[in-house]
Design brief:
It contains three helices and eleven strands; from the N terminus they run βββββααβαβββββ. It is an alpha+beta fold and 131 residues long.
């Protein structure tokens, strides 16, 4: 967990208890400072009772990509995540899911940056670093 002025970033070991009671762990996540601070210390421990505004799912060779798509849709987006990146290093394919958008944007190749706009202003993820 890293705290910045605008929010709190979480690494792969973090998990969250979502509004529908599901417990999920992303590869990375970000929660707005105001949302995080409003929880209070007792709800920030363990699997924090909050849905991140931004998540990243990075597939591994053991993951089924269809299951990760389901996790993003039925888990993160259904519970309030505004932006989710799903990244498959094996095929160098990335999907950007946005709240209220029926179909994700799909990008082939890791010769680009993914933008966090507008949910995470100023944030970009350089996919070249994943090669």
């Amino acid at each position: 967990m890293t705290h910045a002025d605008s929010g709190v970033f979480f690494a792969a070991r973090a998990g969250f208890t979502l509004p529908d009671s599901a417990i999920l762990a992303p590869s990375a996540a970000w929660v707005r400072s105001a949302v995080w601070d409003a929880l209070g210390p007792e709800h920030q421990r363990g699997y924090a009772s909050v849905c991140p505004q931004f998540t990243v799912e990075l597939s591994s060779p053991l993951d089924e990509i269809s299951e990760l798509h389901g996790k993003v849709r039925a888990g993160w987006l259904a519970n309030g995540t505004q932006l989710a990146f799903l990244i498959d290093p094996e095929t160098e394919t990335s999907w950007i899911y946005r709240a209220g958008q029926a179909v994700p944007d799909v990008f082939a190749g890791f010769d680009r940056e993914l933008s966090g706009e507008p949910a995470l202003p100023g944030f970009t993820l350089n996919l070249r670093l994943l090669r």
